[in-house]
Amino acid sequence: MRKFLFLVFLSIELFSYELGNFLSPNYSELFGLQLQKSKTQEKLNSLSWISPIIFSFQRNWSNQIEGGWHPYNSYSIGIEQPIFKSGGIYFGIKYAKSSYYLAKYKIIQQKVNLNTQAAQLLFQIEQTKLNLQKLKLQIKNSNIEIKKTKELFDAGLYGSEVLENALVRGDEANIAYLNLEAELETLKAAFKKISNKDLDNTHLPKLRLLSLQEYMNNNLDIKIALAKRLSSKYYKSVVRSKYLPTISVGARYTKISNAKPQTKDAFTNYNLKISMPISINMKNDLEVAKLDNLISQIDLKNIRKAQKIEYQTVLKRLKIINNKIKLSKKEANAYKRLLKSTKELYRAGQKSIDDVNMIKNSLKMKLLDIKIFKIQKDLELLKLYSKVDI
């Protein structure tokens, strides 16, 4: 029973870590239709080796019979079907299947990229909001600094240059705040182009660190490269079969009106045909297909290597961000101790309320830094999610 409950809670916990879907219904429908189209295209290509049944009508005039031109009509229905193409039929079906998977994974990749772009915008919006809060606190401290500097300037203890520098820093903070507000609106607009979600009621996705095996097994770049390799492998066999013998069988039924005397007005033809093309481009055609196959094999190796390095790079960046969080927590604790001592000095009349407020604001900024770093961690994790289909 305990084991069962553990598995239940574990599954709930794992389920809670997910990216979610932020795409608008239009985008979801678009990708659904593209997948449907690629599946239909695969069926079309898989059956392309089957020849169509041809129905024809012909109006003829002949002077073979004395007495002038003799008109007659002919109707026919027939088919000429290859039944053996030296492997071309088998490999053609395999090529159609691999081409379908290639198209499918590319569509899924586009969908995943757009969805992770929406998630990235959500994190960036939240990050910008936190930076705005931080700038507000910085502006408050700048105003306090300007006030204290002006008092010292009026008392003749500071020169005008010190006051000017304080005023410039205050202006820079206000300008930075306005720039961030504009950036926030740009991010919101970009999100609305992709998603119909209400920003005020949309929660940030809860992400987890994917294992290396999970990342590599579900990596879309690798899946696309694998599909390309298979596709080029089968295509090489299809090209080779084009220059090998093909066996076809045919049948045609013909009906003639006003047929010539002593001839049947309806008859059937059957045929067996063996053919093989001789082309000056055969060698080059085969060489191109062979090289494409070799290139796809090397591409697969390079992509696997690149994705493994990307995963390891994300791990290193996460480690650096975790160290930043530790340092910020350490600094926040130092500010807490400093705030406590400053409050005591304020009560003793040795510090002003402005001194207390400046340290309090600095502490709040440091706590906001921790939240900002955590969002940076999510943005790093999102780089892994943008590459996988899970």
Estimate percent helicity.
Answer: 55-70%
Radius of gyration equals 37 Å
Q: What is the H-and-E element order?
A: HHEEHHHHEEHH
What's the CATH architecture of the domain at 87-243 and 284-385?
A: Up-down Bundle
User: In DSSP terms, counting alpha (H) and pi (I) runs of 4 or more, how many helices?
Assistant: 8
Strand content: 5-15%
What is the topology, as strand order, of the major beta sheet? Answer: 1-2-3-4
Low-pLDDT windows of residues: 4-16
| Average pLDDT reading | 88
Query: Which class best fits the helix and strand makeup?
Result: alpha+beta
CATH topology of the domain at 87-243 and 284-385: Outer membrane efflux proteins (OEP)
CATH class of the domain at 87-243 and 284-385: Mainly Alpha
Biggest sheet overview: 4 strands, antiparallel
Considering the chains and any ligands shown, give keywords for the structure.
390 residues; alpha+beta; 8 helices
